[in-house]
Design brief:
Low-confidence stretches: none
Number of helices: 2
Strand content: over 45%
Number of domains: 1
Radius of gyration: 15 Å
Length: 164
């Protein structure tokens, strides 16, 4: 898999495609102004919001279009690693050599996904070297949403469980 930057006419919107071979599996449109992420595949289209919290705004919270928290993101930028919690499950990730995003559940030797990042320049620098927390959140949300799609029923059950 590979994240590919797609030219977008707006300075505040970045568009990326998750590709496998020649097929675009998922499209992400990240809106810097609104801190929103639109995910689109052939079957589904969703809108998510990225919130910053914590004393130094070092925690990232992912919310669905209704404002319900669906996940959290912790990032260790020094080591290029972190944890993404999505709907009650923890996944780990690492950015290896600033070129590959590896997502795994228990062991890095058994990855769930390996994504080439060389064709996905950073929003802030337009070079695949340093990503903002929001960009990490976009890529990881996209990968998790692509790998582990949830049905509307599962989504409602999770939302009800978090409210209760």
């Amino acid at each position: 898999m590979k994240w590919v930057y797609v030219n977008q006419p707006s300075a505040y919107i970045r568009k990326y495609q998750l590709t496998e071979g020649d097929d675009a599996k998922l499209v992400i449109k990240y809106n810097l102004d609104q801190q929103s992420v639109r995910l689109s595949s052939e079957e589904n289209h969703r809108l998510f919001f990225i919130d910053k919290t914590g004393l130094w705004h070092n925690k990232t919270i992912l919310k669905n279009e209704y404002g319900v928290e669906i996940g959290r993101l912790a990032i260790d930028k020094v080591h290029g690693t972190g944890i993404i919690e999505m709907e009650g499950k923890k996944y780990y990730y690492t950015l290896q050599n600033n070129t590959q995003l590896v997502v795994f559940e228990h062991s890095i030797s058994m990855p769930l996904a390996v994504c080439d990042m060389t064709a996905a320049p950073s929003f802030s620098s337009l070079a695949a070297t340093k990503y903002t927390n929001e960009e990490y959140a976009c890529f990881l949300l996209g990968i998790c949403w692509y790998l582990f799609p949830i049905t509307a029923t599962e989504h409602l059950e999770y939302a009800a469980a978090t409210v209760a």
